[in-house]
Amino acid sequence: MPGITREEVAHLARLARLELKGEELDHFAGQLDDIIGAVARVSEVADQDVPPTSHPLPLTNVMRADEVRPSLTPEQALSGAPAQEQQRFKVPQILGED
Amino acid sequence: MTVTELLSYEAALAEYDPVMGLEVHVELGTRTKMFCGCSTELGAEPNSQTCPTCLGLPGSLPVVNAIGVESAIKIGLALHCEIAEWCRFARKNYFYPDMPKNFQTSQYDEPIAFNGYLDVQLEDGEVFRVEIERAHMEEDTGKSLHVGGATGRIHGASHSLLDYNRAGIPLIEIVTKPIEGAGERAPEVAKAYVAELRELIRALGVSDARMDKGQMRCDVNLSLRPHGTEKFGTRSETKNVNSLRSVERAARFEIQRHAAVLSSGGSIVQETRHFHEDDGSTTSGRIKDNAEDYRYFPEPDLVPVAPARAWVEELRATLPEPPRVRRNRLREEWGVSELDMQSILNAGAVEAIVATIEAGADAASARKWWMGELARNANEQGVSLEELAITPADVARVSALVAAGDLNDKLARQVIEGVLAGEGTPDEVVEKRGLKVVSDDGALGAAVEEAIAGNAAIADKIRGGKVAAVGALVGAVMKATRGQADAAKVKDLILEKLGVSEG
Ligand SMILES: [Zn+2]
Fold first, then answer.
1. Which segments does the entry list as coiled coil (chain A) (predicted)?
2. Which residue from B210, B285, B215 is spatially nearest to B250, judged by alpha carbons?
């Protein structure tokens, strides 16, 4: 199994908006390596005749009619928000991109 | 802010060949969101149309909207695409406050529709085929309000406020294959493509596709390569271009900007760019993430969509006549030139004229009223033709009154003026304002005698064979009857009185 590099962990951390310290990068590189190694064992068992499966049940075309159902009230919707203003979710300054 | 260097358009095209890719997002006109039953009604109070599913709360489960899928298939078929036998949704993972789930439910390598084309017609009639790569289903994001910065801009804002009413509204993303060979006409092709797509979407009845309301938005990908080379250059992606004119301007600007960078030995950065309506320029946005950074994977909470072939064929049978074909058919039926048809299109008068003809008017008079008097009126009021206080049936009635000789053009204009002013139907306006052509021979005869007596010199000329001079006498009679006479009849009467026959 090829090892997960420190740089790869740093990249994933950036995508996940996580701030990791130097020692954490090394720590998680090792852990992720173990996880990926464990999952990779599945492909050792699954032969050519076993297709990759995303859904365990053989269901297709589960659809709903285009009919309006009641929504939450704005109060309910906002009840879990750490901060709100003008009946909207308040989030910190969005930096670095737009 | 640094000024962007541009090369002249002509110089840019002399050296480089543009390649474009257009990505259009269409918000469907469904009653509910793509994966939950929340209403999509516009203008509701902030956060009044959300639920655990579209807020991404734990334990909620999405179920796809059947009309969303049906609309996607209709769009795919109208674009001559193949429809997938089986396809899945995928999660596109990225973090941004306008997306409460932290992933967008989209489609990745299994779009519902793929490999199609759309033929678009440029203003001079030339037809250009735009190949379609794919059309896939996804969902819209919420709306952000940036507080504390200048004029709602994100830069300098202290914080942002989110309304998730729009989050989860069905979107269809339509992606072209690279558009090559358009040369200097590339910006025109881009505009014509978006215009044609908009007409098509409306004709399908799946969305109003109002660009000014954000129901249809276009991203313009553009790159240049030196003439005679095959390999594509690095592209820029100008996001959210929201009018037909802007699509054309954005493509043109990027051609000139790329050419300036490349010809001075620089290289283009692969990035998103923002378009500015005020001056038609673009500025740098963010450096684009790679596809693998979105860590797409099949959506486990939604089962695959496998449209039965019988259903697909049923939908194919409901497709309307393609807008370009319909326009050309109408143009021939109406007997107008390409140029006149283009002005009718630009004036947004096609549907009004069609409806007026259906209400019984002939093509020429329907066109004359909508493109003349009514277009001028709409223009003055700053409204669209449909918003005028007159119906196609009213216009057809006016033209019937003219055809029957009850009104002449001058009186007809007054009738239309009255209808627009809310005085009632054309017949009511005729009645109330007393607008009828004077065709009573006795009354006219007196006016004709008077005109001849008062213009003896002219009358002599006519008697002497200068028939063209009759116009002056007709004018005098029309003036005396305050325009309510039938001019053709007046002319006949004068000539008869003077004992002259025409031609
Ligand atoms: Zn919802």
1. none
2. B285
Residue B316 lies inside a defined structural domain of this protein: no
Are B74 and B196 in a shared domain? yes
ipTM of the complex: 0.88
**Stretch B350-372: mean pLDDT, rounded?**
94
B121 lies in the same domain as B98: yes
Q: For B21-30, what is each residue's pLDDT tens digit? A: 999 999 999 9
CB–CB contact A88 B286 (8 Å): no
pTM of the model: 0.82
B120-to-B203, B268, B334, B345 alpha-carbon distances in Å: 15, 30, 21, 14
Question: Are B63 and A63 inside 8 Å of each other by CB?
Answer: yes
Q: Would you mind telling me the total number of residues written for chain A in this entry?
A: 98
**Are B7 and B259 within 8 A, CB to CB?**
yes
Residue range of the domain that includes B411: 322-433
B326/B307 same-domain check: no
Distance, CA of B386 to CA of B4 (rounded, Å): 42
For A65-77, what is the mean pLDDT?
Answer: 98
Higher pLDDT, B286 or A81: A81
Task: Indicate if the pLDDT at residue B244 is higher than 60.
Answer: yes
Asked whether residue B402 falls in the same domain as residue B287, the answer is no
In a domain, B122, yes or no: yes
For residue B147, the chain A residues in CB contact (below 8 A) are 85
Per CB-CB distance under 8 Å, the chain A contacts of B295 are: 15
Query: Which of 84-103 (B) contact A at CB < 8 A?
Result: 86, 88, 93-97
Residue B214 and residue B357 share a domain: no
Residues B187 and B238 in one domain: yes
Handedness of CA B485, B486, B487, B493 (dihedral sign): negative
Instruction: Determine whether the interchain pair A85/B161 forms a contact, defined as Cβ–Cβ distance below 8 Å.
Output: yes
Q: Is residue B2 part of a domain?
A: no
| Domain A1-47, CATH | 1.10.20.60
Measure A80 CA to nearest chain B CA, in Å.
Answer: 10
Q: How confident is the model at residue B77 (pLDDT cuts 50, 70, 90)?
A: very high
- Structural domains in chain B (count): 3
Residue B226 pLDDT = 96
Q: Hey, where are the domains in chain A?
A: 1-47
Interval between CA B165 and ligand 1 midpoint (Å): 8
Let me know: does A72 contact B57? Beta carbons within 8 Å: no
Arithmetic mean of pLDDT over chain B? 92
